[in-house]
Protein backbone atom coordinates (compact mmCIF):
# COMPACT_ATOMS: atom_id res chain seq x y z
CA UNK A 1 0.00 0.00 0.00
CA UNK A 2 2.67 2.43 1.03
CA UNK A 3 4.63 1.88 -2.14
CA UNK A 4 1.58 2.58 -4.25
CA UNK A 5 0.92 5.78 -2.36
CA UNK A 6 4.52 6.85 -2.69
CA UNK A 7 4.61 6.09 -6.37
CA UNK A 8 1.40 7.95 -6.82
CA UNK A 9 2.52 11.00 -4.90
CA UNK A 10 5.85 10.89 -6.73
CA UNK A 11 3.99 10.69 -10.03
CA UNK A 12 1.76 13.63 -9.14
CA UNK A 13 4.72 15.68 -8.04
CA UNK A 14 6.74 14.78 -11.16
CA UNK A 15 3.80 15.83 -13.31
CA UNK A 16 3.51 19.04 -11.32
CA UNK A 17 7.22 19.71 -11.83
CA UNK A 18 6.75 19.17 -15.54
CA UNK A 19 3.88 21.63 -15.57
CA UNK A 20 6.02 24.27 -13.86
CA UNK A 21 8.88 23.57 -16.29
CA UNK A 22 6.48 23.89 -19.23
CA UNK A 23 5.18 27.17 -17.87
CA UNK A 24 8.70 28.56 -17.66
CA UNK A 25 9.50 27.26 -21.15
CA UNK A 26 6.41 28.91 -22.57
CA UNK A 27 7.27 32.23 -20.94
CA UNK A 28 10.80 32.06 -22.35
CA UNK A 29 9.47 31.18 -25.80
CA UNK A 30 7.19 34.22 -25.63
CA UNK A 31 10.18 36.26 -24.48
CA UNK A 32 12.27 35.05 -27.41
CA UNK A 33 9.59 36.09 -29.88
CA UNK A 34 9.17 39.48 -28.20
CA UNK A 35 12.92 40.07 -28.26
CA UNK A 36 12.95 39.28 -31.98
CA UNK A 37 10.07 41.70 -32.52
CA UNK A 38 12.08 44.48 -30.89
CA UNK A 39 15.13 43.64 -32.99
CA UNK A 40 13.11 43.54 -36.22
CA UNK A 41 11.28 46.77 -35.42
CA UNK A 42 14.58 48.62 -34.91
CA UNK A 43 16.00 47.10 -38.08
CA UNK A 44 12.87 48.09 -40.03
CA UNK A 45 13.20 51.63 -38.76
CA UNK A 46 16.89 52.22 -39.34
CA UNK A 47 16.96 50.41 -42.70
CA UNK A 48 13.63 51.83 -43.89
CA UNK A 49 12.37 48.29 -44.49
CA UNK A 50 8.55 48.49 -44.48
CA UNK A 51 8.12 44.81 -45.30
CA UNK A 52 9.82 43.78 -42.05
CA UNK A 53 7.81 46.42 -40.22
CA UNK A 54 4.58 44.93 -41.59
CA UNK A 55 5.69 41.51 -40.36
CA UNK A 56 6.28 42.89 -36.88
CA UNK A 57 2.77 44.37 -36.92
CA UNK A 58 1.30 41.04 -38.04
CA UNK A 59 3.17 39.04 -35.37
CA UNK A 60 1.75 41.09 -32.52
CA UNK A 61 -1.39 39.00 -32.46
CA UNK A 62 0.62 35.84 -31.84
CA UNK A 63 2.20 37.49 -28.80
CA UNK A 64 -1.19 38.53 -27.45
CA UNK A 65 -2.41 34.96 -27.86
CA UNK A 66 0.65 33.64 -26.04
CA UNK A 67 -0.10 35.92 -23.10
CA UNK A 68 -3.65 34.63 -22.81
CA UNK A 69 -2.54 30.99 -23.06
CA UNK A 70 0.24 31.40 -20.50
CA UNK A 71 -2.14 33.12 -18.10
CA UNK A 72 -4.61 30.27 -18.54
CA UNK A 73 -1.82 27.85 -17.67
CA UNK A 74 -1.05 29.87 -14.54
CA UNK A 75 -4.68 29.89 -13.43
CA UNK A 76 -5.02 26.17 -14.11
CA UNK A 77 -1.94 25.38 -12.04
CA UNK A 78 -3.21 27.58 -9.19
CA UNK A 79 -6.60 25.88 -9.23
CA UNK A 80 -5.40 22.27 -9.56
CA UNK A 81 -2.02 22.21 -7.87
CA UNK A 82 -2.46 24.80 -5.16
CA UNK A 83 1.22 25.66 -5.20
CA UNK A 84 2.93 27.16 -2.17
CA UNK A 85 6.19 28.94 -1.42
CA UNK A 86 8.61 29.09 -4.36
CA UNK A 87 6.21 27.25 -6.72
CA UNK A 88 3.57 29.88 -6.06
CA UNK A 89 6.12 32.64 -6.58
CA UNK A 90 7.09 31.10 -9.91
CA UNK A 91 3.48 31.15 -11.09
CA UNK A 92 3.00 34.75 -9.93
CA UNK A 93 6.29 35.86 -11.50
CA UNK A 94 5.30 34.24 -14.80
CA UNK A 95 1.89 35.90 -14.90
CA UNK A 96 3.49 39.29 -14.16
CA UNK A 97 6.30 38.80 -16.66
CA UNK A 98 3.90 37.76 -19.40
CA UNK A 99 2.06 41.04 -18.94
CA UNK A 100 5.29 43.03 -19.33
CA UNK A 101 6.33 41.00 -22.35
CA UNK A 102 2.99 41.63 -23.99
CA UNK A 103 3.49 45.36 -23.49
CA UNK A 104 6.99 45.16 -24.95
CA UNK A 105 5.36 43.50 -27.96
CA UNK A 106 2.95 46.46 -28.20
CA UNK A 107 5.86 48.89 -28.15
CA UNK A 108 7.66 46.93 -30.89
CA UNK A 109 4.48 47.11 -32.94
CA UNK A 110 4.27 50.88 -32.41
CA UNK A 111 7.91 51.28 -33.47
CA UNK A 112 7.10 49.31 -36.61
CA UNK A 113 4.16 51.64 -37.32
CA UNK A 114 6.44 54.67 -37.10
CA UNK A 115 9.05 52.88 -39.22
CA UNK A 116 6.45 52.52 -41.97
CA UNK A 117 5.51 56.20 -41.79
CA UNK A 118 9.14 57.29 -41.85
CA UNK A 119 9.99 54.97 -44.75
CA UNK A 120 7.10 56.45 -46.77
CA UNK A 121 8.50 59.92 -46.26
CA UNK A 122 11.93 58.85 -47.55
CA UNK A 123 14.69 61.15 -46.36
CA UNK A 124 16.37 59.48 -43.37
CA UNK A 125 15.77 61.76 -40.40
CA UNK A 126 18.08 62.54 -37.55
CA UNK A 127 18.30 60.49 -34.41
CA UNK A 128 18.80 57.09 -36.05
CA UNK A 129 22.24 56.48 -34.57
CA UNK A 130 20.91 57.18 -31.08
CA UNK A 131 17.83 55.10 -31.78
CA UNK A 132 19.86 52.12 -32.93
CA UNK A 133 22.13 52.44 -29.93
CA UNK A 134 19.33 52.70 -27.36
CA UNK A 135 17.42 50.02 -29.24
CA UNK A 136 20.28 47.55 -28.92
CA UNK A 137 20.70 48.50 -25.32
CA UNK A 138 17.10 47.75 -24.32
CA UNK A 139 17.02 44.63 -26.47
CA UNK A 140 19.99 43.31 -24.49
CA UNK A 141 18.20 44.19 -21.28
CA UNK A 142 15.21 42.10 -22.34
CA UNK A 143 17.52 39.25 -23.29
CA UNK A 144 19.38 39.45 -19.96
CA UNK A 145 16.16 39.69 -17.96
CA UNK A 146 14.93 36.51 -19.67
CA UNK A 147 18.25 34.74 -19.11
CA UNK A 148 18.11 35.78 -15.45
CA UNK A 149 14.59 34.30 -15.30
CA UNK A 150 15.70 31.07 -16.98
CA UNK A 151 18.64 30.64 -14.60
CA UNK A 152 17.10 32.15 -11.45
CA UNK A 153 20.10 34.49 -11.55
CA UNK A 154 19.63 37.45 -9.20
CA UNK A 155 23.08 38.88 -10.03
CA UNK A 156 22.13 39.25 -13.67
CA UNK A 157 18.72 40.60 -12.66
CA UNK A 158 20.41 43.28 -10.59
CA UNK A 159 22.59 44.17 -13.58
CA UNK A 160 19.46 44.72 -15.68
CA UNK A 161 18.02 47.02 -13.02
CA UNK A 162 21.27 48.98 -13.03
CA UNK A 163 21.27 49.25 -16.84
CA UNK A 164 17.85 50.88 -16.81
CA UNK A 165 19.34 54.03 -15.33
CA UNK A 166 21.84 54.45 -18.14
CA UNK A 167 19.12 53.90 -20.73
CA UNK A 168 17.19 56.75 -19.11
CA UNK A 169 20.25 58.99 -19.44
CA UNK A 170 20.77 58.03 -23.08
CA UNK A 171 17.08 58.60 -23.73
CA UNK A 172 17.11 62.08 -22.24
CA UNK A 173 20.21 63.09 -24.16
CA UNK A 174 18.75 61.83 -27.45
CA UNK A 175 15.48 63.66 -26.72
CA UNK A 176 17.28 66.95 -26.16
CA UNK A 177 19.11 66.55 -29.48
CA UNK A 178 15.84 65.89 -31.31
CA UNK A 179 14.07 68.87 -29.74
CA UNK A 180 16.95 71.13 -30.76
CA UNK A 181 16.76 69.75 -34.26
CA UNK A 182 13.02 70.49 -34.45
CA UNK A 183 13.61 74.05 -33.36
CA UNK A 184 16.31 74.54 -35.97
CA UNK A 185 14.22 73.06 -38.75
CA UNK A 186 10.49 73.39 -38.02
CA UNK A 187 9.59 71.69 -41.31
CA UNK A 188 11.00 68.49 -39.82
CA UNK A 189 8.68 68.56 -36.78
CA UNK A 190 6.24 65.85 -37.72
CA UNK A 191 9.03 63.61 -39.04
CA UNK A 192 11.13 64.05 -35.92
CA UNK A 193 8.07 63.43 -33.73
CA UNK A 194 7.91 59.94 -35.21
CA UNK A 195 11.47 59.34 -34.02
CA UNK A 196 10.56 60.78 -30.62
CA UNK A 197 7.70 58.27 -30.28
CA UNK A 198 10.14 55.49 -31.12
CA UNK A 199 12.55 56.67 -28.43
CA UNK A 200 9.71 56.80 -25.96
CA UNK A 201 8.79 53.21 -26.82
CA UNK A 202 12.39 52.09 -26.38
CA UNK A 203 12.58 53.75 -22.98
CA UNK A 204 9.40 51.87 -22.01
CA UNK A 205 10.91 48.60 -23.17
CA UNK A 206 13.82 49.27 -20.80
CA UNK A 207 11.30 49.77 -17.98
CA UNK A 208 9.62 46.46 -18.75
CA UNK A 209 12.98 44.65 -18.79
CA UNK A 210 13.62 46.20 -15.40
CA UNK A 211 10.23 44.94 -14.16
CA UNK A 212 10.99 41.39 -15.32
CA UNK A 213 14.35 41.56 -13.54
CA UNK A 214 12.53 42.56 -10.35
CA UNK A 215 10.24 39.53 -10.66
CA UNK A 216 13.33 37.29 -10.85
CA UNK A 217 14.47 38.64 -7.49
CA UNK A 218 10.98 38.09 -6.09
CA UNK A 219 10.94 34.58 -7.48
CA UNK A 220 14.33 33.57 -6.11
CA UNK A 221 14.47 35.54 -2.87
CA UNK A 222 10.82 36.16 -2.07
CA UNK A 223 11.49 39.91 -1.88
CA UNK A 224 9.17 42.28 -3.70
CA UNK A 225 11.65 44.92 -4.91
CA UNK A 226 9.32 46.83 -7.21
CA UNK A 227 9.67 50.59 -6.89
CA UNK A 228 13.12 50.17 -5.30
CA UNK A 229 16.31 51.77 -6.59
CA UNK A 230 19.06 49.47 -7.92
CA UNK A 231 21.16 50.55 -4.92
CA UNK A 232 18.59 49.42 -2.37
CA UNK A 233 18.01 46.20 -4.33
CA UNK A 234 21.74 45.51 -4.19
CA UNK A 235 21.77 46.16 -0.47
CA UNK A 236 18.80 43.88 0.19
CA UNK A 237 20.35 41.14 -1.93
CA UNK A 238 23.64 41.34 -0.07
CA UNK A 239 21.82 41.06 3.27
CA UNK A 240 19.74 38.08 2.21
CA UNK B 1 -19.73 16.55 16.35
CA UNK B 2 -21.39 17.45 13.12
CA UNK B 3 -22.54 20.76 14.45
CA UNK B 4 -19.01 21.59 15.57
CA UNK B 5 -17.64 20.66 12.15
CA UNK B 6 -20.28 22.74 10.44
CA UNK B 7 -19.68 25.72 12.66
CA UNK B 8 -15.98 25.35 12.12
CA UNK B 9 -16.23 25.05 8.36
CA UNK B 10 -18.70 27.90 8.34
CA UNK B 11 -16.29 29.95 10.39
CA UNK B 12 -13.38 29.19 8.05
CA UNK B 13 -15.45 30.00 5.03
CA UNK B 14 -16.80 33.19 6.63
CA UNK B 15 -13.27 34.27 7.38
CA UNK B 16 -12.27 33.47 3.81
CA UNK B 17 -15.20 35.53 2.55
CA UNK B 18 -14.06 38.40 4.73
CA UNK B 19 -10.56 38.14 3.32
CA UNK B 20 -11.90 38.31 -0.22
CA UNK B 21 -14.12 41.26 0.73
CA UNK B 22 -11.13 43.01 2.31
CA UNK B 23 -9.07 42.40 -0.79
CA UNK B 24 -11.73 44.00 -2.95
CA UNK B 25 -12.07 46.91 -0.51
CA UNK B 26 -8.33 47.52 -0.58
CA UNK B 27 -8.26 47.51 -4.36
CA UNK B 28 -11.11 50.01 -4.48
CA UNK B 29 -9.41 52.22 -1.89
CA UNK B 30 -6.27 52.21 -4.02
CA UNK B 31 -8.45 52.99 -7.04
CA UNK B 32 -10.04 55.93 -5.23
CA UNK B 33 -6.65 57.39 -4.42
CA UNK B 34 -5.40 56.87 -7.97
CA UNK B 35 -8.51 58.53 -9.38
CA UNK B 36 -7.93 61.52 -7.10
CA UNK B 37 -4.30 61.68 -8.24
CA UNK B 38 -5.44 61.93 -11.86
CA UNK B 39 -7.96 64.62 -10.97
CA UNK B 40 -5.40 66.63 -8.98
CA UNK B 41 -2.75 66.29 -11.69
CA UNK B 42 -5.10 67.69 -14.32
CA UNK B 43 -6.18 70.48 -11.98
CA UNK B 44 -2.53 71.33 -11.22
CA UNK B 45 -1.80 71.50 -14.92
CA UNK B 46 -4.73 73.56 -16.09
CA UNK B 47 -4.65 75.93 -13.09
CA UNK B 48 -0.85 76.18 -12.99
CA UNK B 49 -0.92 75.07 -9.35
CA UNK B 50 2.56 73.69 -8.58
CA UNK B 51 1.75 73.04 -4.92
CA UNK B 52 -0.94 70.53 -5.87
CA UNK B 53 1.41 69.04 -8.45
CA UNK B 54 4.05 68.52 -5.75
CA UNK B 55 1.46 66.77 -3.60
CA UNK B 56 0.61 64.43 -6.45
CA UNK B 57 4.30 63.62 -6.85
CA UNK B 58 4.63 62.94 -3.13
CA UNK B 59 1.54 60.69 -3.00
CA UNK B 60 2.88 58.35 -5.65
CA UNK B 61 4.89 56.42 -3.10
CA UNK B 62 1.74 55.62 -1.12
CA UNK B 63 0.22 54.12 -4.26
CA UNK B 64 3.29 52.00 -4.90
CA UNK B 65 3.12 50.72 -1.33
CA UNK B 66 -0.56 49.89 -1.74
CA UNK B 67 0.25 47.80 -4.79
CA UNK B 68 2.86 45.78 -2.92
CA UNK B 69 0.55 45.24 0.06
CA UNK B 70 -2.41 44.19 -2.09
CA UNK B 71 -0.22 41.78 -4.03
CA UNK B 72 1.00 40.29 -0.77
CA UNK B 73 -2.61 39.81 0.27
CA UNK B 74 -3.31 38.05 -3.03
CA UNK B 75 -0.34 35.72 -2.64
CA UNK B 76 -1.28 34.96 0.98
CA UNK B 77 -4.84 34.07 -0.01
CA UNK B 78 -3.58 31.86 -2.83
CA UNK B 79 -1.19 30.04 -0.50
CA UNK B 80 -3.55 29.61 2.47
CA UNK B 81 -6.99 29.40 0.94
CA UNK B 82 -6.27 27.73 -2.35
CA UNK B 83 -9.24 29.43 -3.97
CA UNK B 84 -10.95 27.95 -7.00
CA UNK B 85 -13.37 29.12 -9.69
CA UNK B 86 -14.75 32.62 -9.15
CA UNK B 87 -12.72 33.16 -5.93
CA UNK B 88 -9.53 32.44 -7.85
CA UNK B 89 -10.63 34.75 -10.65
CA UNK B 90 -11.25 37.52 -8.12
CA UNK B 91 -7.73 37.19 -6.75
CA UNK B 92 -6.21 37.16 -10.24
CA UNK B 93 -8.34 40.13 -11.34
CA UNK B 94 -7.26 42.10 -8.26
CA UNK B 95 -3.57 41.43 -8.83
CA UNK B 96 -3.88 42.49 -12.47
CA UNK B 97 -5.96 45.56 -11.65
CA UNK B 98 -3.54 46.71 -8.97
CA UNK B 99 -0.75 46.68 -11.56
CA UNK B 100 -2.79 48.87 -13.92
CA UNK B 101 -3.74 51.24 -11.11
CA UNK B 102 -0.11 51.59 -10.12
CA UNK B 103 0.73 52.55 -13.70
CA UNK B 104 -2.10 55.08 -13.75
CA UNK B 105 -0.54 56.54 -10.61
CA UNK B 106 2.78 56.79 -12.46
CA UNK B 107 1.11 58.64 -15.32
CA UNK B 108 -0.57 61.07 -12.88
CA UNK B 109 2.83 61.69 -11.36
CA UNK B 110 4.31 62.37 -14.81
CA UNK B 111 1.49 64.79 -15.60
CA UNK B 112 2.24 66.58 -12.32
CA UNK B 113 5.91 66.84 -13.31
CA UNK B 114 4.97 68.49 -16.60
CA UNK B 115 2.50 70.73 -14.78
CA UNK B 116 5.35 72.04 -12.63
CA UNK B 117 7.54 72.71 -15.68
CA UNK B 118 4.71 74.48 -17.48
CA UNK B 119 3.79 76.56 -14.44
CA UNK B 120 7.41 77.72 -14.14
CA UNK B 121 7.35 78.94 -17.72
CA UNK B 122 4.20 80.98 -17.06
CA UNK B 123 2.29 81.73 -20.25
CA UNK B 124 -0.53 79.22 -20.53
CA UNK B 125 0.13 77.17 -23.63
CA UNK B 126 -2.34 75.81 -26.14
CA UNK B 127 -4.10 72.53 -25.75
CA UNK B 128 -5.42 73.02 -22.23
CA UNK B 129 -9.09 72.84 -23.20
CA UNK B 130 -8.49 69.55 -24.98
CA UNK B 131 -6.34 68.32 -22.11
CA UNK B 132 -9.00 69.11 -19.54
CA UNK B 133 -11.64 67.47 -21.68
CA UNK B 134 -9.68 64.27 -22.32
CA UNK B 135 -8.52 64.31 -18.70
CA UNK B 136 -12.08 64.32 -17.42
CA UNK B 137 -12.99 61.66 -19.91
CA UNK B 138 -10.30 59.19 -18.78
CA UNK B 139 -10.90 60.00 -15.13
CA UNK B 140 -14.53 58.99 -15.59
CA UNK B 141 -13.39 55.82 -17.30
CA UNK B 142 -11.25 54.93 -14.27
CA UNK B 143 -14.17 55.69 -11.97
CA UNK B 144 -16.58 53.58 -14.05
CA UNK B 145 -14.10 50.71 -14.31
CA UNK B 146 -13.79 50.68 -10.51
CA UNK B 147 -17.55 50.88 -10.05
CA UNK B 148 -17.92 48.01 -12.49
CA UNK B 149 -15.39 46.06 -10.40
CA UNK B 150 -17.19 46.87 -7.16
CA UNK B 151 -20.57 45.78 -8.55
CA UNK B 152 -19.39 42.97 -10.84
CA UNK B 153 -21.16 44.95 -13.55
CA UNK B 154 -20.20 43.71 -17.03
CA UNK B 155 -22.53 46.20 -18.75
CA UNK B 156 -20.65 49.12 -17.26
CA UNK B 157 -17.33 47.39 -18.02
CA UNK B 158 -18.36 47.10 -21.67
CA UNK B 159 -19.23 50.80 -21.69
CA UNK B 160 -15.71 51.62 -20.48
CA UNK B 161 -14.21 49.51 -23.27
CA UNK B 162 -16.35 51.39 -25.76
CA UNK B 163 -15.30 54.78 -24.36
CA UNK B 164 -11.64 53.99 -24.93
CA UNK B 165 -12.15 54.27 -28.67
CA UNK B 166 -13.52 57.81 -28.44
CA UNK B 167 -10.65 58.85 -26.15
CA UNK B 168 -8.26 57.63 -28.85
CA UNK B 169 -10.05 59.80 -31.42
CA UNK B 170 -9.99 62.85 -29.13
CA UNK B 171 -6.32 62.21 -28.43
CA UNK B 172 -5.41 62.05 -32.09
CA UNK B 173 -7.31 65.21 -32.91
CA UNK B 174 -5.67 67.12 -30.03
CA UNK B 175 -2.26 65.85 -31.12
CA UNK B 176 -2.78 67.10 -34.66
CA UNK B 177 -3.73 70.54 -33.33
CA UNK B 178 -0.60 70.68 -31.15
CA UNK B 179 1.70 69.62 -33.98
CA UNK B 180 0.22 72.33 -36.20
CA UNK B 181 0.75 74.84 -33.44
CA UNK B 182 4.41 73.85 -33.06
CA UNK B 183 4.95 74.27 -36.78
CA UNK B 184 3.38 77.72 -36.74
CA UNK B 185 5.37 78.85 -33.73
CA UNK B 186 8.64 76.92 -33.38
CA UNK B 187 9.59 78.89 -30.28
CA UNK B 188 6.76 77.07 -28.51
CA UNK B 189 8.12 73.59 -29.32
CA UNK B 190 9.53 72.60 -25.96
CA UNK B 191 6.50 74.05 -24.15
CA UNK B 192 4.03 72.28 -26.40
CA UNK B 193 5.99 69.04 -26.05
CA UNK B 194 5.18 69.10 -22.35
CA UNK B 195 1.48 69.24 -23.23
CA UNK B 196 2.00 66.43 -25.72
CA UNK B 197 3.51 64.23 -23.00
CA UNK B 198 0.51 64.98 -20.82
CA UNK B 199 -1.86 63.95 -23.60
CA UNK B 200 0.12 60.77 -24.09
CA UNK B 201 -0.22 60.00 -20.37
CA UNK B 202 -3.96 60.62 -20.49
CA UNK B 203 -4.34 58.29 -23.44
CA UNK B 204 -2.46 55.62 -21.46
CA UNK B 205 -4.75 56.13 -18.49
CA UNK B 206 -7.67 55.40 -20.81
CA UNK B 207 -5.94 52.17 -21.85
CA UNK B 208 -5.50 51.12 -18.22
CA UNK B 209 -9.17 51.84 -17.47
CA UNK B 210 -10.00 49.66 -20.44
CA UNK B 211 -7.77 46.88 -19.05
CA UNK B 212 -9.50 47.02 -15.67
CA UNK B 213 -12.86 46.81 -17.41
CA UNK B 214 -11.66 43.68 -19.21
CA UNK B 215 -10.68 42.09 -15.87
CA UNK B 216 -14.24 42.70 -14.62
CA UNK B 217 -15.58 40.67 -17.53
CA UNK B 218 -13.01 37.94 -16.79
CA UNK B 219 -13.98 37.99 -13.14
CA UNK B 220 -17.73 37.76 -13.70
CA UNK B 221 -17.91 35.64 -16.84
CA UNK B 222 -14.61 33.76 -16.82
CA UNK B 223 -13.84 35.08 -20.32
CA UNK B 224 -10.41 36.56 -21.00
CA UNK B 225 -11.32 39.41 -23.39
CA UNK B 226 -7.95 41.14 -23.47
CA UNK B 227 -6.92 42.22 -26.96
CA UNK B 228 -10.54 41.99 -28.13
CA UNK B 229 -12.49 44.83 -29.76
CA UNK B 230 -15.48 46.26 -27.86
CA UNK B 231 -17.69 44.81 -30.62
CA UNK B 232 -16.45 41.28 -30.11
CA UNK B 233 -16.67 41.70 -26.32
CA UNK B 234 -20.30 42.77 -26.71
CA UNK B 235 -21.00 39.76 -28.90
CA UNK B 236 -19.37 37.33 -26.48
CA UNK B 237 -21.26 38.87 -23.56
CA UNK B 238 -24.59 38.57 -25.35
CA UNK B 239 -23.89 34.90 -26.12
CA UNK B 240 -22.91 34.03 -22.56
UniProtKB/TrEMBL annotation, chains A, B:
Keyword list, A-Z: Cytoplasm, Phosphate transport, Transport
Protein name: Phosphate-specific transport system accessory protein PhoU
Pfam families documented for this protein: PhoU
Organism (species): Oceanospirillum sediminis
One GO BP annotation of this record: intracellular phosphate ion homeostasis
Residue span, PhoU domain: 28-113, 132-216
Source taxonomy: Bacteria, Pseudomonadati, Pseudomonadota, Gammaproteobacteria, Oceanospirillales
Function as written in the Swiss-Prot or TrEMBL entry: Plays a role in the regulation of phosphate uptake.
InterPro entries per the UniProt record, alphabetical: PhoU, PhoU-like_sf, PhoU_dom
Cellular component terms per the entry's GO annotation: cytoplasm
Cellular compartment(s): Cytoplasm
Subunit details: Homodimer.
Amino acid sequence: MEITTDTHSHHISQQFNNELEDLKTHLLAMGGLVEKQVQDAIYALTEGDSAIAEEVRANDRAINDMQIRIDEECTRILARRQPAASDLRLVMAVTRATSDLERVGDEASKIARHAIKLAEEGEPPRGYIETRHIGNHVRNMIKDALTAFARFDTELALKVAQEDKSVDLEYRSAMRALVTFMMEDPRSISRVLNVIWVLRSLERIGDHANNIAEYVIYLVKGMDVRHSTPESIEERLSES
